[in-house]
Amino acid sequence: MIFLWAFLIGGAICVLGQICFDVFKLTPAHTMTLLVVLGAIADGVGLYDPLIKFAGAGASVPITSFGNALVHGAISELHKNGGIGIITGIFKVTSAGISAAIIFSFLAALFVKPKG
């Protein structure tokens, strides 16, 4: 049953993004930003963690979980270190993913030649 819920919740998040493209004519950058902000807001009000527990990868894989990670890290570090924790928490939680994206993009740029 967990696979069904993951499929349905993840699909619903993707449908929301597709609606932003088709109906509201938003660019991919605007849509991605909107989804990240919605994930951040959902975590800020305490809704995203229960969604991850319910849907598993259906909620933790889409881009909305990046907003969740940003806010989750900031809030947890705020409680530990005070105001400076807001900034350090964002970097601590997301640094591995962002570093991996930069490294793999660099490696891809070294080995893949664009057609043109």
From TrEMBL:
What are the TM regions of this chain, as residue ranges?
A: 27-47, 54-75, 87-112
Ordered alphabetically, the record's keywords are: Membrane, Transmembrane, Transmembrane helix
Which superkingdom does the taxonomy of this entry point to?
Bacteria
Under the heading InterPro entries, the entry gives: Spore_V_AE, SpoVA
What PANTHER family is this protein classified in? STAGE V SPORULATION PROTEIN AC-RELATED, STAGE V SPORULATION PROTEIN AEB
Q: Does the keyword Glycoprotein apply?
A: no
Report which gene this protein is encoded by.
spoVAE
How is this protein named in the record? Stage V sporulation protein AE
